[in-house]
Write a structure and sequence with these properties.
With 267 residues, this protein is mainly alpha-helical. The protein contains 9 helices and 6 strands. It is globular. 36% of the residues are buried.
Length: 267
């Protein structure tokens, strides 16, 4: 084997390892985390789980620093970062298993995603956009048990695999066009009602232009089109109409709005 061929093989092998690591970080795998599918209809309950996670620290911080429109007082949040770090440390010590109920898993991963996103912003604040931060969704910044998860891994490798499209309206990417950050923590005992609220508020907000014949929708409905199922089939319009006050005609042509990645900062 000549040196050129040997170098090519080594390079391809190294590239494949890098690609696998990147795919894992971006969320193509669950990185060993438990995934349970939601059995519709989802019921809010604390029963049937080996654990009930206490999210009260996160709840207090959200009520204090997030307004009714989902805009965040990052300057104030920074003053309470030690309390946020305490909450994150508590989350990281937990190791979710399939003995947790689907309600506990949903609440845990939604809150984890949102809390670590806020912390990422605080670490880089002031910043104009989360996209100005290096690798915000691919870096393993979320230590859970023995794993370092990425935000993309939590979204794509875990939450999207749970057969609950309303998670797209619950997780917040710290941007103007994102579904708003709810100013309360998600909990197993209220998860269905909270997800319904998140879906209704986002779909009927100015982040979508609902019109029977010429709707312009958030790009979220384009990027994650295959997640919006009705009776097991992809049906974006049918899915939206379950929550919309203005119904879209089934044969309407969809257009998608430009996404505003500016920071959801109160300032």
């Amino acid at each position: 084997m000549n040196s050129y061929l040997r170098l090519s093989i080594v390079s391809l092998f190294a590239l494949s390892l890098y690609s696998c690591a990147l795919f894992s970080a971006a969320g193509l795998t669950s990185q060993g985390q438990p995934v349970k599918e939601v059995k519709s209809p989802l019921q809010s309950t604390k029963e049937g789980s080996t654990i009930n996670v206490d999210h009260s620290q996160w709840d207090r911080l959200l009520k204090k620093h997030v307004d009714s429109q989902g805009m965040v007082d990052y300057t104030g949040f920074k003053e309470d970062r030690s309390e946020l770090k305490s909450y994150l440390k508590m989350l990281s010590k937990l190791e979710p298993t399939k003995r947790w109920s689907v309600q506990e898993l949903l609440a845990f991963y939604i809150n984890t995603y949102n809390a670590y996103t806020v912390d990422l912003i605080l670490e880089n604040y002031p910043v104009k956009s989360i996209k100005d931060i290096s690798g915000p969704w691919t870096r393993g910044i979320v230590p859970i048990g023995n794993n370092n998860l990425s935000l993309g891994g939590i979204e794509n490798g875990i939450l999207r695999k749970m057969n609950e499209a309303r998670i797209h309206f619950a997780i917040n990417c710290a941007s103007i066009s994102c579904p708003k950050l709810l100013n309360e923590a998600y909990t197993a005992g209220r998860i269905n009602e909270q997800l319904d609220r998140a879906a209704k508020e986002f779909i009927n907000s100015e982040k979508n232009e609902l019109d029977p014949d010429k709707p312009k929708l958030s790009s979220i409905f384009d990027w994650y089109r295959k997640d919006y199922l009705v009776n097991g089939n992809v049906d974006v319009i049918g899915y939206i109409n379950q929550f919309a006050t203005t119904k879209i005609n089934p044969n309407a042509e969809l257009q998608f709005m430009e996404y505003d990645w500016n920071l959801n900062d109160q300032r």
